[in-house]
Amino acid sequence: MSGVTLDTVIKRYGNTQVIHGIDLEVADGEFCVFVGPSGCGKSTLLRMVAGLEQTTEGTIRIGDRDVTRLDPSDRGVSMVFQTYALYPHMTVEENMGFGLKMTGHPKSEITTKVAEASRILKLDDYLKRKPKALSGGQRQRVAIGRAIVRGPEVFLFDEPLSNLDAELRVEMRVEIARLHKEIGATMIYVTHDQVEAMTLADKIVVLRAGRIEQVGAPMELYRDPDNRFVAGFIGSPSMNFLRGRVKGSEVVSNGLARPVPKTGAAQDGQDVLIGLRPEHLTVKPGASHRVELTESLGGVSYVHLIGPDGEKIIVEERGDHRSALGDQVDLGVDPAHLYLFDAKSELRLR
Ligand SMILES: Nc1ncnc2c1ncn2[C@@H]1O[C@H](COP(=O)(O)OP(=O)(O)OP(=O)(O)O)[C@@H](O)[C@H]1O
Ligand SMILES: [Mg+2]
């Protein structure tokens, strides 16, 4: 049993509180991703689990051990950082085994563990090379190898792919997913890339300004966000938001050609935000919106519209798109895929 439990965890630097009482349960073997905008506290929270930052208040447990006051080396965790910081004068093999050597493990054991990590990470051909003769992706694999040989109960990753170019990121993302399947350890992974979050996570934790906004499986957050922040953060391109007001059983918005049906909790007269994902919108013949830009990515195009009040709306078109710059069009809305939020609290109206 080596899940991670955070109980009312708080972090203060002097008088500045940056983590505001976080409760979280990461199950044994789970892949948990922390996402959120820059400065929201992802790294701080991860470093608190690692023991690299002191926890001001609250309790952190790994399995059934209270590790809140333990040294990093006694927690049974390994951390992989954005910058891989390998020893330049050591070979790949030596870099991976160095931690074990320092803690006095016998040579034969180190050799076995390095060989196992090398097999998992497909580094066999590079064991005798020095880091400078490796690509960025290979170097990051060595850094992950260094974490694997220590046999931790919990792996902690802080944006491990941010320094890689787009193609390598995709490749390494797949590698990390495979690694998790193969070794089955608990993993906590920090990223601000929501594609990484969606594809890797069993569970996503959306953070904002030191608080949890929502926790759930990727598709739960995508389909059923609790508030505007989560709705806007999960999904790419982001959900569109239009101002509207409930009138009877409908919601009226200048940004829509016609009213849309209201959902359960929305009250007559209430000011709301209507959330519409680009993939659930269509462009229809009409005159209410103007095409400002179309971005063709091949299989899909993103059509940027300007609404009657100057609102910007993105619509996803599949296949050969037909919208052209300057066209006047209407927005096609699917009432089955429509989210309402209170305009003030920004909470979802279900
Ligand atoms: N030593 C420190 N003293 C004071 N404030 C700090 C210190 N370290 C971090 N902070 C603050 O804590 C907050 C959270 O920082 P953190 O590094 O955890 O953010 P993050 O979510 O990892 O952001 P990013 O995506 O940019 O890496 C920030 O507002 C940061 O300014
Ligand atoms: Mg960070």
Automatic annotation (TrEMBL):
Transmembrane segments: none
Any Pfam family hit: OB_MalK
Lineage: Bacteria, Pseudomonadati, Pseudomonadota, Alphaproteobacteria, Rhodobacterales
The keyword Cytoplasm belongs to this UniProt entry's keyword annotation: no
NCBIfam families: PRK11650.1
Keyword field contains ATP-binding: yes
CDD domains recorded: ABC_MalK_N (cd03301)
Protein name from the UniProt record: ABC transporter ATP-binding protein
